[in-house]
Structure formats: C-alpha cells, structure tokens
Amino acid sequence: MSTPAVAQAPNAHPKPVQRLADRVFSGAALTAGSLILATLAAVAAFLVMQSIPAVTTDPNDISILSGQNFWSYVWPLVFGTVWSAAIALVMAVPVAIGIALFISHYAPRRLAQGLGYVIDLLAAVPSVVFGLWGANTLAPAVQPFYSWLTENLGWFPLFSGQASGTGRTILTASVVLAVMILPIITALCREIFLQTPVLHEEAALALGATRWEMIRIAVLPFGRAGIISAAMLGLGRALGETMAVAMVLSSSGAITVALLTSSNPSTIAANIALSFPEAYGLNVNLLIATGLMLFAITLVINALARYIISRRKEFSGAN
Amino acid sequence: MAQTTAAPAVRLSSPTPPPRGQMSNVYASGRLGRWVPWAILGVSLIISLAVFALFQAASGGDFNVAGAIVLTGVLNGILIYVTALLVEGIRKAKDRLVTTLVSSAFIIALAPLISLFITVLSRGTERFDLQLFSESMRNVVGQGGGVLHAIVGTLIMTGIATVISVPVGLLTSIYLVEYGRGALARAITFFVDVMTGIPSIVAGLFAYALFSLVFGPGVRLGVAGAVALSVLMIPVVVRSSEEMLRLVPNELREAAFALGVPKWLTILKVVLPTSLAGITTGVMLAIARVIGETAPLLVAAGFTQNMNYNPFEGRMQSLPVFVYSSYVSQGTDAQAYLDRAWAAALALILIVMALNLIARIVARLFSPKLGR
Amino acid sequence: MSKRIEVKDLNVYYSKFLAVEDVSLTIEPRSVTAFIGPSGCGKSTFLRTLNRMHEVIPGARVEGEVLIDGDNLYGAGVDPVLVRRNIGMVFQRPNPFPTMSIRENVLAGVTLNNRRISKSAADDLAEKSLRGANLWNEVKDRLDKPGSSLSGGQQQRLCIARAIAVSPDILLMDEPCSALDPISTLAIEDLIEELKSEYTIVIVTHNMQQASRVSDRTAFFNIAGTGKPGKLIEYNDTDTIFTQPTVQATEDYVSGRFG
What we know:
Subcellular location (chain B): Cell membrane
Number of helices of chain C: 11
Region (Disordered) (chain B): 1-22
CATH superfamily of the domain at 5-99 and 171-255 in chain C: P-loop containing nucleotide triphosphate hydrolases
Strand order of the largest sheet of chain C: 5-4-1-2-10-9-3-8-7-6
Strand content of chain C: 25-35%
Strand content of chain B: under 5%
Pfam family, one (chain B): BPD_transp_1
Function (chain B): Part of the binding-protein-dependent transport system for phosphate; probably responsible for the translocation of the substrate across the membrane.
Structural class of chain B: mainly alpha
Shape of chain B: flat
Order of helices and strands of chain C: EEEHEEHEHHHHHEHEHEEHH
Radius of gyration of chain C: 18 Å
Mean pLDDT of chain B: 85
Oligomer: heterotrimer
Domain ABC transmembrane type-1 (chain B): 151-359
C-alpha cells in the first residue's frame, strides 16, 4: 500500500469479463427501463405538440371556443377540477383516517385483514360503475336532502341558490369521487399506522394513556407526513377521474361555489370525455391542450406527495 | 373487564379470589360495564326509529331509513360521551367518543359499497341473460341486443395491453432490482411513480395523438386503446414485480452464483421462479385495474355497435365504454339502454372481482415459503 | 481434485474504503484451513475474494493476485462464473432454493447451467453428493420434498451436497455452523474431516474450538480499529497458533482475552 505502484492501481483494476448472454439479458432489461423514460417523454412531447395549435390559432377558428380566449375556456374547467377534487378530499380524508385507525388499532386482530379486503373491494369497482350508480341511485337519493338544505341553510354560501331537481350537482359528483379515493387513502394510512413503533405505543400505554390518547401521542404524529402524502395521492386520483364526474355531473360551465344548484362547473377530464367523441379539427387540439393542463396539475400534486414520502423515509427510519 | 354491577365477574378476573366476595376491585371501580355502549346504541336506535315513525305518521310518505341511521349515530355519540363523562371522567369520555367515531367511519364507507352492490345486482340481473353474451348491438335500436362485441373488444385490447406491459414491466423491474444503480435507476424509479399518477384520460389522449400521426386525425383503433391501457398498466406491473423481486433473499442469488451460475440464468431460474406467484398476482391485479378503464378507450378506441375482431382497423367497443355510451346516449327506448348498461356493469364487476379473487388465491397457494 | 491456493499482496476495497490490506498466504491442497479473528476483521471478505463472490457487492474490488495452481483468478479475461464453478462456497445461513425439491437442490449446479444430464446419471450424482454430505440416509425417502422442509443442520448439509455436486477443486465455507445447534455443528465438522481427503477446504469461523478441532492450519486476522483495514496477523499450523503463537495479539485472541 505504501509503494507508488499500488497507489495508482485503483484506476487499473480490470473490469470483470461479461458473458454474451449476460450482456444480452442486462441489455434487454436496460432497454425496457429506458422505454419507460421514452414513453413518458413521448406522452409529454405529443401532448405539447398537439396542444400548440390550440393556443396559437385565432379563437374564432375553433368552434368550441366560439370566439373566446383559450384561457377563458380553460379556467372554469380548472376551477371545477380543483374544486370537486378538494371537496372530495375534505370528505374522504377524515373517514379514511377513521377506517385506517379502526382496522389498525380498534378492530380485533382476526377481523382486521378481512375488513381491509372489504375496503379494497371499493377500489376494485370500475369507475364507470361508480358513475352509473352515482347518477341513477345516489343523485335521486340525496336530492330531497339538498332541497332541505337550500331551504333551511340557504344563507350559507355553499348551500345558496335553488336546489337542483335531479340531484346531479357538484356535491354529488364529489361524494362519488370521495368514495372512489377512499380505498387508496385508507390503504396507505393503514400501512403507516401499522408501522408505528410498538415501543412508542407501549410507552404511551404504560403512562396510563387511554387508547385515544395513545393514538394522539404516538400514532398520529408518527403518521402525519404519511397521511398528508396519502391525501395528496388521493387528490391526484380525484383530479384525473373522468367517468364518474362525466356521468354524474350535469354541468353548465359556471364558476360558482354553490354546491347544490343546477349550475355547476365541469372538470377537465369530464369535459374531454363528453366532447372528444364528437370533436374534429382544431377542437381536438383544444381538448388535448386541456388534457395537458390536467397532466401538469396532477404531476405537481403527485411529485409533491412522493417528495413528502421520501423525506419521511429518511427521517423516521421506518421502511 | 370486570363490572361494578356484577361482583362474580370481579372474582373471576382476580388471580387469587379475595376471601370476601363482596369486596370490589379497585381497578374496576368507576368503569362502565361492557354492555353499556351496546345498550346506549340500542336506546339511540329505538329513539330514532320512534322519531322517524312519528314523522312518517305526521307527513306520510316512505320511512326514511337513511335519516334514522344518521340520527342513531349522532344520538349514540352524544349519549356515550355524556354517560362516560358522568361516570368515568373526561379522558375516558373522549376515548369512548373517538371509538364511536372511528367505528362509524367504517360503517360510512360500507354504506356506498353495499348500496352499489345491491343496485348493480338488482338492476343488472334484468338483462343478464344468454342473449346479452351472444349478440352484438348491430341493428338494434330498442330492446334485445347484447354486449358480445364489447366483451370481445375488451378481451382483445386488454390482451394486447398485457402482452405489451408484462415484458416491459417485468424487465424494467428486473433492471431496477438486479442491475440498476446510480442516476438512471433513480430516474426510472421516479418516472414510474410519475406514470402511476397519469390520469387515465391523458393516457388515452397520448395514444390518440400517437396514432393520429400515422393514420391521420380522427383515428380510432383497438390497438390505440391497447397502447393507452399499457401506459396505465406498465407502472403497476413494475411496482408490484419490483416489490416481489426484492422479497427474494439475496442468499439465494449468492447460492446460485457460488455454483457458477451466470447472472442471467440465476435471475431466470432462481429469482423469477421464487417470486413467480407474487408477480402473477401483481399482473392479474394490474389487468383487473385496466379492464375497467373507460376514459382512455373512449378517446382512443371509440365506440361502435358492431363486432370488430381486428385491432388494427376501425373502432372497437369495450365493456366499460359500452356501459358509458348506453347511459349517455339512451335511444328511444331508454329503459332498454339502461338495462343493458346495468347488465354490462354487472358483467364488468364480476370479471374484476373474479380477477381479484384468483389473484389472491394464486398468491396464497403458490408462493414458496421464504420464512425460516 | 484439489488445488493449491496462493495469495499474493491482496488488497480488498469497498469503493474507496480499504477493507483488507496486503494479505499473502499459501493454502495447501487436501487440507483444512481456518480463518479466525474478531468481527469485522475482513476474514469473510477475504474468503469471498477467493472465488470472486465479493463482486456481488457493488463497489467491491481487489488488487493483487490469487493463484489457483498457478492460474491467476484476477488475470485479464477471467470469467468469474467459471471461477465459481471450480471453487464452491457454503454460506453462513443454509440457503436451499425454496422452489426446488431436495433432489433438484443437489442437482441445481448442473441444471441451472443448462447442462444436459441423463436421468440415471442425475440419480447417481444426487446420491453420491448426498452420501458425500452424510445426508443420504436421512433424506433418501423424501427426495421430492422441498428443501426447506429439512431441519437447519440438514439444510446446511444439503447446501454442502449442492456445492460438491459440481465437483469443485476448492470448498469455501463462510461460518457454516454459526446458525446451527451443537449436534448439527458436530455433524458438519465430521463431514469437513471426511471431505478433506478430496478437497481443499477453507473455513471461516468465530468458534476457536471449532478451528482447533477441524483445521490443519489457521490464519488469524485482526483489525487495528474501526475504519482501519483488516490484516493477516499470523498464519501457521493450527497447533502452533493455539499453543505457542508468535504474535501477542494472536495469543490474546486465542486465549480469549478479547474478541
């Protein structure tokens, strides 16, 4: 080690010989991995390429726009997308945390896994079935309740206006969205709650804490970052969900926070699904441009969620 | 738990029974008995049933089941809190309130699930007959007709998507677990996560944009639908296979290396067989996930009333899109369209459930025991 | 078949970190050589460089020469896969392939390499290897049961049978008994004694009684402190190492004063 000849050796160490079959196999694996990067790049590139005409062309030449500016067409859709997803999130997160706690800390051990499967069943239902159910079963069922709300609590901005006669309002759509994102948030929260260090839990219990106090002291602080990222992944789902909204919501394109009236904003995804089959020419480019915006929004939300998860991993020592 | 009201229980629970049975256990004093929460639940139920029965008697109309259940829940929460507050103090009261809330969260989630299954079952069985599975919708305007063309389209497109996704996804996961290091592996991991978050309709738009470059605008092809589904399916396959491959203990790889087995054969003959059951489960769950996708197929493959066996020519119908299009464009005989939609939805749910079930069975039956 | 191992000026690195420094020793054929030393002194790492298994760990690399009957393992154009076919290894924890039966496990070295072998030849090889590992009588009636159905000691002997089925020149054993109970350990030690007549055996062990029981020669490795490289302190006949070592550290270690 002391001689100069040894000191220069690190650069000279020979690469191990690789067999041909090994090279072919690892090459195939590498190609597949790179294909994913290429696909994603292609998704972004094609969407951008197809979107450019929608923004640069004179709005009068795009029939859906009928003269209005591109941004004034997109803005209500963006609002509707974010608004409906946010309402869904507000409804889903507390329930999901409750279910996750129920399964991880309240239900008897033998039952817990079975209960988890039951919630996972919700995730297995195709979105189009949720849409059908939301439009045909849920909307008529909640309509009387909506009428009651507007009559008695109409002074509250969210419940203002004349209740929709069909019940197919943005609140109904959000309820369906909430049901749809419930399983993913529950599954992630459950996993995080189960990872709570047993030592922390036992320390709390040994101090004479009740079960709720133990959860407040040990489980929730440990899982906070996880809950946030689970909620954001759920939000990403809700933003991009198409069919349930397209089938449940009867939209008028209005920007309003009133939840129960018949004038509702549409969402980007639902708007594409409803307009795309009949679209032609530049209208297609316009719809793809709105799709690109949706892609960008979900990308940001998901990246943020992943970032929080990865940071949590570094600090907690779990996983 | 021992109860203040039931002295025998105290005796049973203490390791050495005290000489005088009347003496109460210090640790059991000031506690509500086990039966109390259930009794309170019962009382709340009776009260709300009574209230809503009165409403019904006063105003006529149907008995409001949902309202009664909600009132029961609210009453139950309040009563438990107050009772526990009076007997056990504030800390216990809070604990009991949270227990009630957490349990009701589970019931809240069950409500839509049960409602959905009941609805799909009751309305889907109206047209769940042989004709549904033996005919297409060609030249059908009113009643009759079937979803055979949609089932065939779903099978073809999901099949192609699987054929594309499984090799790509599996090889990628092999790269990540067995070969990948450094920046490229990190980039792939990150972008697989990004791909997981792509909204399904965006995947459809991508496939459309891709194929319209070759075939011109307005193209709707079965294979385009399959490509859209692959974009959604690949990340799911990568994630699940990666997880399964990482579960294979390193010692097995080393054992094979030490026998002079090259790396590629080690992966093919030791690592993959060991994780085969898990990978199969993951693939089936991925299929179950994309088989219900509507939006990308609506955009990329369109819809049609006719049978189409060729994914490279013409529009192709699929089960989820059939449900959607029947619902959105109800013809003159609206009920016939709705009935078909529900029947197709029932068929779709059954397929997805079957896939999920088989996947779990595969995971349980065929995975090798890695524990020692 | 049995070959001589000559190690000349070997350094082992994990990326930048020097793990084992400047080892030179010669291991004679048909002998058992034990590597002893405190945890983290690099004896397992060094053992792995004798069949290039250290390359499985990313960043690990070697300077110097390892000559097997004069052929350098680290010469240009050497295929590590071929090296490992001729130098077998048994690991700390028994690791039978869970998807294979007992018989398939023994034959794994042959079948995994896609070599064709007739049914009768395979049966003969399986029996010969299992007999060689003193396992035949215990498992001959259940060759088609999974390898993981055996007890820990049996699994380890199965792994030895698997290693000798490919008729290697040298057998490396990385603490083969550390996960086993005393009775299984004794069975393995007896086995090592028998295998000595055919193979060059190198065994890493934490157990000094074991080293003194099974080995002809013993190498003592030590480490100056954490972050320092491991070194070969003393290498001699086992009797000499345990009775009259020349280095103070060796005496301290074998007499149980540290480690």
